[in-house]
């Protein structure tokens, strides 16, 4: 990816000063959040913040939404998408609580697997406060991109083509039953100040015609009570015309690689250390694509 393209993408970043989000009670069904009312007697509703449930209900083995299990994504077009977190937090509530000025930074990159089935994700985040105060922290792919004003609330809920909802926790031993965008639920929460991970995710796609496509969506990082701390849009950084297929989920080589001009990158930031962001982008792209 050319430096000029990176600078153009980063230059579009804007800031919204987040206010403490209000707590509301959800007592009726809501697509992507509570598709069914719990069958337990005495249910009067569940607390939500910014449309997300603040605490989990009971685990229900094999629970799915109206759409049933998620579908493994195969025959994927070779492409790589990256979301880079802005240099200013959308919500500073964790810093107010802990008396710190930490900023969560880093990136998440998703690349079509070399055999055409699933997405290899590479996650590199840093700057989390102590888990004992607001953690474990979670991250998800959300349905909408971050708007130009950087408002993480406008990303709406998690990517959830099967309408599973959030009330019953995802079981990572049965990822096909989880929300497609619930990366933390399927692959692990963030429990350290610096967090790196890589894994194969079978239920997301680089095919824009698929309901599991993540390339035009966003990643949002939350506290344990679902408060949205920071967010960023995915942008295509590379595509390939040919790949070498392999039975190994993480092997294979890409050829005829071409870079793509990124779409408008937005996040919650106004004063950006441009060189730091560009350095992170270049390093990550170099490790993943070149």
UniProtKB/TrEMBL annotation:
Cross-referenced InterPro entries: SOD-like_Cu/Zn_dom_sf (IPR036423)
Top-level taxonomy: Eukaryota, Fungi, Dikarya, Ascomycota, Pezizomycotina
Region (Disordered), start-end ranges: 241-263
Protein name: superoxide dismutase
Catalytic activity, EC: 1.15.1.1
Molecular function as annotated in GO: metal ion binding; superoxide dismutase activity
Catalysis: reaction(s): 2 superoxide + 2 H(+) = H2O2 + O2
Chief localisation class: other
Family statement: Belongs to the Cu-Zn superoxide dismutase family.
Organism: Phialocephala subalpina
Keywords: Antioxidant, Secreted
């Amino acid at each position: 990816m050319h430096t000029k393209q990176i600078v153009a993408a980063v230059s579009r970043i804007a800031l919204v000063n987040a206010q403490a989000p209000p707590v509301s009670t959800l007592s009726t069904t809501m697509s992507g959040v509570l598709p069914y009312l719990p069958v337990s007697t005495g249910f009067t509703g569940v607390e939500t913040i910014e449309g997300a449930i603040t605490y989990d209900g009971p685990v229900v083995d094999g629970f799915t939404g109206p759409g049933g299990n998620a579908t493994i994504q195969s025959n994927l077009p070779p492409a790589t998408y990256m979301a880079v977190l802005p240099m200013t937090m959308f919500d500073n509530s964790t810093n107010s609580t802990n008396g710190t000025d930490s900023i969560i930074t880093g990136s998440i990159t998703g690349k079509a697997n070399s055999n055409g089935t699933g997405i290899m994700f590479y996650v590199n985040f840093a700057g989390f406060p102590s888990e004992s105060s607001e953690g474990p922290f979670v991250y998800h792919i959300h349905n909408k991109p971050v708007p130009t004003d950087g408002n993480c609330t406008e990303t709406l809920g998690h990517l959830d083509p099967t309408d599973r909802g959030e009330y019953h926790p995802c079981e990572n031993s049965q990822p096909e039953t989880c929300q497609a965008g619930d990366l933390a639920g399927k692959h692990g929460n963030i429990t350290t100040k610096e967090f790196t991970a890589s894994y194969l995710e079978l239920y997301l796609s680089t095919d824009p015609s698929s309901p599991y496509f993540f390339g035009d969506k966003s990643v949002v990082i939350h506290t344990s009570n679902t408060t949205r701390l920071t967010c960023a849009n995915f942008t295509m950084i590379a595509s390939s015309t040919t790949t070498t297929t392999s039975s190994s989920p993480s092997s294979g080589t890409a050829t005829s690689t071409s870079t793509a001009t990124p779409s408008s990158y937005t996040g919650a930031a106004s004063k950006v250390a441009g060189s730091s962001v560009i350095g992170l982008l270049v390093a990550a792209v170099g490790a993943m694509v070149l």
